[in-house]
Automatic annotation (TrEMBL):
Lineage: Bacteria, Pseudomonadati, Pseudomonadota, Betaproteobacteria, Burkholderiales
Gene: ppk1
Active site: residue positions: 438 (phosphohistidine intermediate)
Originating organism: Hydrogenophaga defluvii
Keyword 4Fe-4S on entry: no
Entry-linked NCBIfam families: poly_P_kin, PRK05443.1-2, PRK05443.2-2
Protein name: Polyphosphate kinase
Family: Belongs to the polyphosphate kinase 1 (PPK1) family.
InterPro entries hit by this protein: PP_kinase (IPR003414), PP_kinase_C_1 (IPR041108), PP_kinase_middle (IPR024953), PP_kinase_middle_dom_sf (IPR036830), PPK_C_dom2 (IPR025200), PPK_N_dom (IPR025198), PPK_N_dom_sf (IPR036832)
Modification(s) after translation: An intermediate of this reaction is the autophosphorylated ppk in which a phosphate is covalently linked to a histidine residue through a N-P bond.
Keyword Nucleotide-binding: yes
Length: 695
């Protein structure tokens, strides 16, 4: 779907960003469909799609719903954009639950793994469920009967709830027929039932099924005439006016408490919910009928990940992958000694992120290290990295942490980390007012014979050991004096807010990066127009910045050959005649989430390759502190081109090709010289085979 009318020379029919995000989720959903994928992993991909849709509503849907409610007809969000998005999401959800009910659940049952519903339980299982309910569940449930003094309760974002309709009268003789039962988040979502001796079957029961079976116990003397599960998704992007607040941390803490109760955007109910109950809920949440989603199955598939974790069936999961130690490093060798010899590249998760932690660990314990500076965006819970920084302070080192408090959905963890670092005496700063600090960098200053020497780690990813096993990213270790000097200037800028001096190598958003990328594209276009061969290959998560997309389209028209490897949303239509003939766009969806950003330009004999923390999105370029750094070592540059660009351009197993109309089709393997179907190639599988630990 496009947002603009057909093209003129200047007008490009950009693809709609929200529809592009939903198309990405269709490609993820395809992994749940693939019969060669282990069964529990197929279920996990269904959960991932649900999690992605939750975030889509929490972050992207509010302007469209608000436009629909006031019948807005102009602008990027209108009544019709709301209806179009709703229709697309409902198609996606219908496909998702069809795969769940018709493929995944029956296949799990064949393997002896079963979610036992209320009607399927035998007397022994019913007794067990009753005992569980009385012992662990009922004490935490507080049913609320609605009347003038008991208004509709606050229902938290994405929480599990029941609406119940009752006959008869309450203890005071009143006919208040509606009650709400909230299921607390502290309760596990799935329980393993005792198995019959000698049986290999694994039976489970969901918390919703446990509550459902005993709803009547919560209303003694009344009869439950109908009920339904429901779940509401709310707007969750924290809005804080940083110019107005005196203490960002305090303001965010307050905002976090309110996030769970933002504007309601979507209402999910079980498929059997009556119109009476669904209409009542829509009215309470001030939602139109289009916001209602009737689902044939659990209303929160995201929580099925808990079931996956409970199942003991290694054969139904991906074979465990053990990343190898980075090929450029020798275990036990000092990082400082190694970096004197040249830069080091780590390709995660194929090579182990543990090396990054090992470098920090060495710095913390080295008495010659005087200072450590680091940006913190996402680090995960129970972070060893945070403990190492605290230990560095205790050992007398100067520690500066630039903590991004506004990392979406990680705000609370980062506030807690900031406070823990401050409590031991670390210098904690929160970056620049109005900008998120998204750059990933660590700078270590060490006293050596010739004076002070700096060592750095730069990355396309986060300092999170969990996602480092699941996301493809590039870590770059260097002692390059020009590069480390630049990073020191960036840290000084973030702490002092002083004007950035001219940098040697690094490009920084929001100051230089956007313009530098547009200039590089336009320079290639000018040379191509003169007949000089020009090529651009860019790998990133999203392309939604219109000036960059426009520059690429123009360069294509001038003769530049352009390959874009864009995992998620892409607004530039590929190979649209007269607009983007030479632009090819592919999305690779694999076992690991593609996350590395690589920008490659070749004009004639001149090559430039950049690694970056930034996607080509307006917010990354103009509303965040991001960095890009050049890779000048020819060996490392060739390795990045081979592993991150060429391998992905030849992927025929996990790649999808964007069409001029915004649709994606699978990449084809082609045929051999003898006319036979060629073998499929997967970039990720090849890299796993190349770097996986044999131990």
């Amino acid at each position: 779907m496009t947002t603009s009318a057909p093209t003129s020379h200047h007008k490009i029919p950009f693809l709609d960003r929200d529809h592009s995000i939903l198309a990405f989720n269709l490609r993820v959903l395809d992994w749940a469909r693939r019969s060669e994928i282990p069964l529990l992993e197929r279920l996990r991909y269904l959960c991932i799609v649900s999690s992605n849709l939750d975030e889509f509503f929490e972050v992207r849907a509010a302007p469209h719903l608000s436009a629909y409610q006031i019948n807005e007809q102009r602008g990027p969000a209108t009544a019709s954009t709301y209806l179009a998005i709703t229709e697309r999401v409902k198609q996606l959800v219908a496909e998702q639950y069809a795969i769940y009910n018709n493929e995944v659940l029956p296949l799990l049952e064949k393997r002896g793994i079963k979610l036992v519903s209320y009607s399927e339980r035998n007397p022994r299982q019913r007794r067990w469920v009753r005992d569980l309910f009385v012992r662990e569940v009922q004490p935490l449930l507080v049913p609320v009967g609605l009347d003038p003094s008991h208004p509709f309760p606050q229902v938290a974002n994405k929480s599990l709830n029941f609406i119940v309709r009752l006959s008869g009268r309450d203890a005071f003789g009143r006919e208040n027929e509606i009650a709400i039962v909230k299921v607390p988040r502290v309760l596990a979502r799935f329980f393993r039932m005792p198995s019959v001796k000698g049986s290999k079957q694994s039976h489970f029961v969901s918390i919703s099924s446990v509550v459902r079976a005993h709803l009547s116990d919560l209303f003694p003397g009344r009869q439950v005439t109908e009920f339904a599960q429901f779940r509401v998704t709310r707007h969750s992007d924290l809005a804080v006016d940083e110019e107005e607040v005196k203490n960002l941390r305090t303001a965010l803490r307050k905002g976090l408490q309110q996030r769970h109760y933002g504007q309601a955007l979507r209402l999910e109910v079980s498929a059997g919910c009556s119109e009476f109950l669904s209409d009542f809920l829509l009215q309470q949440f001030e939602l139109p009928p289009q916001a209602l989603y009737r689902v044939h199955g659990p209303i929160n598939l995201v929580r099925m990940t808990q079931l996956i974790d409970l199942v003991d069936a290694p054969a139904l999961r991906f074979e465990r992958y053990n990343p190898g130690w980075p090929v450029q490093l020798v275990p036990g060798q000092s990082f400082f000694d190694r970096l004197q010899q040249g830069d080091v590249l780590i390709h995660q998760p194929f090579e182990s992120f543990d090396a990054v932690l090992a470098m920090l660990r060495e710095a913390v314990h080295d008495p010659d290290v005087l200072a450590i500076k680091q940006t913190i965006y996402r680090t995960g819970s129970n972070s060893e990295l945070m403990e190492l920084l605290r230990e560095a302070v205790r050992r007398g080192k100067e520690v500066t942490a630039v903590v991004e408090l506004k990392a979406r959905f990680d705000e609370e963890a980062n506030i807690n980390y900031a406070e823990r670092l401050e409590s031991v005496g670390a210098q904690v700063v929160y970056g620049v007012v109005g900008l998120k600090t998204h750059a990933k960098m660590m700078l270590i200053t060490r006293r050596e014979a010739g004076g002070l020497k700096r060592y750095a780690h730069l990355s396309t990813g986060n300092y999170n050991p969990g996602t480092a096993r699941l996301y493809t990213d590039l870590s770059y270790l260097t002692a390059d004096e020009a590069l480390t000097h630049d990073l020191d200037q960036v840290f000084l800028h973030l702490a002092s807010q002083n004007r950035l001096p001219k940098l040697n190598k690094v490009l920084i958003a929001p100051f230089h990066l956007h313009k530098a990328m547009i200039d590089a594209i336009e320079s290639a276009a000018q040379q191509a127009a003169k007949g000089v061969p020009a090529r651009i290959i860019v790998k990133m998560n999203a392309l939604t910045d219109e000036p960059l997309a426009r520059a690429l389209a123009h360069a294509s028209q001038q003769g530049v050959e352009i390959d874009l490897i864009v995992r998620g949303a892409c607004i530039l239509p590929a190979q649209l005649p007269g607009v983007s003939d030479r632009v090819r766009v592919r999305s690779v969806i694999g076992r690991f989430l593609e996350h590395s950003r690589v920008f490659y330009f070749r004009v004639g004999d001149h090559e430039a390759l950049w690694l970056s923390s930034a996607d080509w999105m307006n917010r990354n370029m103009l509303r965040r502190v991001e960095l890009a750094w050049p890779v000048s070592d020819p060996t490392l540059r060739q390795r990045i081109m081979d592993e991150c660009l060429s391998a992905y351009l030849h992927d025929t197993r996990d790649a999808w090709l964007l069409q001029p109309d915004g649709q994606y089709v699978r990449a084809q393997a082609g045929t051999t010289a003898k006319g036979r179907a060629a073998a499929h190639h997967s970039a990720q599988v090849s890299l796993m085979q190349r770097y996986g630990s044999k131990g």
